Amino acid sequence: MTALWLGIAVLTLMAVSIVFWPLLKNYRESKQQPVDVDRIQQNIEIFKERLSELEKECSLGTLSQADFDELKLELERNLLIDAETNQRKDPVLKMGSSQLVTIMLLALLVPASSFGLYAYLGRAVDLETSLSMNAWNDSFNNADITLEDAMAQLEAELARRPENPEGWYLLATTRMNLNQFDLAAAAFAQSALHLPEASPELAGVLGQQAQALFFAKGGKMDDDVLALTDQSLQLNPTEITSLGLLGIAAFESENYASAIEYWQAALSNAEGNAAESLRNGIERARVQLQSLTPDAKDQATEGAFVRVYIDLDESILTEITGEQTVFVFARPAGQRMPITAIRMQVNQLPAEVRLDESSTLMPNMSLADFEEVDLVARISVTGNAEEGSGDFKGSLSSVKVSNDEVIRLIISERID
């Protein structure tokens, strides 16, 4: 950081020198070479005196009228030539001491104001953070230093400057790789604490904090872990880590239908090994679901429910395809996170669907906890569970739960 300010100071000094050198040079020249501003007036006076002499000579008869006219014309010509010569000369700027001081103050005020604006609006903190992270990476790559030493250096830096979410995240992921889950959870918490609320990374950090806490508690999905997954999914309903954790909890509680829903939602944004693991989990959950006895399957569909008839508005038929994904879900009034959801395709519509306990997304929350919910049916043009531009949706508010009435929901609104 010192190098940055030193560089700025040097560049500022160079800029000020470029501006001041011509001014100082002109100031010295104006002192050494004063301009004779009265020269034209003196020439006029000389012209008048000489003309007066010629007029006297002409009146006394010592000068003929023809000679007088010729000499007068010559005087006038010389006066005009003198005046024109003075006008063609480049004017010399006369600068006093007070003017020079004023210019110097203004010139110094500009860089001073720039420093103040940069300190207030600039990214000096981010630059210092980046430099600190680069220094930590350099020390980590040094063969003479151990991982624990490098982490100790990073922790010392974070103790000095805790408002560094990237540094906390780096420390947390390193702790996770060392299976130090409790320390990782604490570092993820610090990273989330110092991230802006509008940061797109916040949901992922909260999900990873929940995962670290889940492992630290021996795979127990307690209220602390659930609270973190809820926060994460409120910010991003398709956050992979949180959905994966909820799927694990549902699977272990033998709620295989919910596990499938969680993992399918996570799969829409997963890639590589993560996507393969989710597919394997979904397949295992389907096998377990098929192995349930008929009584167990019936029990899974008992409890609170909402019956919905989904149809398409004619105005959007030319803008959609049969293979596009449709998400139908219920959520508490005024909230973003759904409590139950199903997935289907456009070519299955119109259709009547049932949202019930078998499609619950939240292990600690179900339709039975609410008397009324909001219903949403959305066509995703990308296949992602998260709402996006170009999707189509229909929604209804304050729908009663466990009402035998079939609610009609039309998809007609385009999301821009």
Automatic annotation (TrEMBL):
SUPFAM superfamilies, A to Z: TPR-like
Gene Ontology process terms (BP): cytochrome complex assembly
Listed GO CC annotations: cell envelope; plasma membrane
Top-level division of the source organism's lineage: Bacteria
All copies of domain Cytochrome c-type biogenesis protein H Ig-like, residue ranges: 306-411
Residue ranges of the TM segments: 6-24, 100-121
Main location: other
Alphabetical keyword list: Cytochrome c-type biogenesis, Membrane, Repeat, TPR repeat, Transmembrane, Transmembrane helix
Keyword Amino-acid biosynthesis: no
Annotated Cytochrome c-type biogenesis protein H TPR domain residues: 147-269
Localisation: Cell envelope
UniProt xrefs under Pfam families: Ig_CycH, TPR_CcmH_CycH
NCBIfam families the record matches: cytochro_ccmI (TIGR03142)
Protein name, entry field: C-type cytochrome biogenesis protein CcmI
Native organism: Nitrincola tibetensis
Organism classification: Bacteria, Pseudomonadati, Pseudomonadota, Gammaproteobacteria, Oceanospirillales
